[in-house]
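Long-time lurker, first post.

We've been arguing in lab meeting about whether adenosine-5'-triphosphate would sit comfortably in this protein at all. Half the group thinks yes, half thinks no, and nobody has a model to point at. So I'm putting the question to the forum: if I give you the sequence and the SMILES, can you give me back a predicted structure of the complex? Inputs are below. Any interpretation is welcome too.
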Amino acid sequence: MDEPIVRVEGLSKQIKQQSIVSDISFSLSKGSILALCGGNGAGKSTVLRMLAGIMQPTTGETIVNNIRWKHNRRLYCQQIGYMPDDYAFNHGLTAEETMSFWASLRKVHKKRVGEVLAMVGLENVRKKRVTTFSKGMRQRVMMAQAMLAKPLLLIMDEPTNGLDPFWTREFIKLLKQLKQDGSTIVFSTHQLEAAENAADTVIFLNHGRNVGEGSVDSFLDRYENLYAAFNDCLGLE
Ligand SMILES: Nc1ncnc2c1ncn2[C@@H]1O[C@H](COP(=O)(O)OP(=O)(O)OP(=O)(O)O)[C@@H](O)[C@H]1O
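Top reply:
Settle the argument with this. Predicted structure of the protein with adenosine-5'-triphosphate, as tokens:
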């Protein structure tokens, strides 16, 4: 493997003495796509929040582009675009105004707002208020904001939630395009078809632990699909 661009070492999170995430480690080379897969409450969002630098790990380290979160949080976060699994939009703002606000915070040229809205198919509704958008359209606004600053690492929490089949396919195409352009991507999902179609490697999480990992191709050599692989890793029928 090339020199990894992302390194996660022994990441754990405890909240009120409860173990939420235990000893997660992985590394990613530039231009690779990792899917974190698991059911509700498996710990996916918690891992992604720690990797995004918005939640402090109890133990372990995250390193992106050789920058340790512990050493330089600001510079670390500048390497990353993060799409959370939920977001409360400001009622009054249009899609374009919402994106322009984020663009100004990140010192991104306004021209990029139109580019990313076009990438997620929202340029025709850019003058409409985001609060009038469907769940899937709001997801696409959040994807667009994560891509604004052309981050080295794109982290997306449940990006296909609320997307219809057309936009799920478009999303997969978009990820492949971003990968070709050199982005490294980590996304979470409980939709294993999305992982199968979009990711290079997967980690299966259960109760905050890694219960299986490998390349999608290596799983598909051994199993009919990722569902069968996931069930086997969890010891299910
Ligand atoms: N701030 C918190 N305080 C207490 N428990 C928490 C907190 N955040 C997460 N948890 C618990 O940690 C576990 C993992 O949560 P997390 O949101 O990371 O899972 P997830 O895999 O993203 O789930 P989902 O697919 O339902 O979004 C859950 O049992 C959740 O209730």
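For your lab meeting: Residues 87-150 form one domain. The beta strands are 6-15, 18-28, 33-37, 59-64, 67-68, 80-83, 153-156, 184-189, 201-206, 209-215. Whichever side wins, do check it experimentally.
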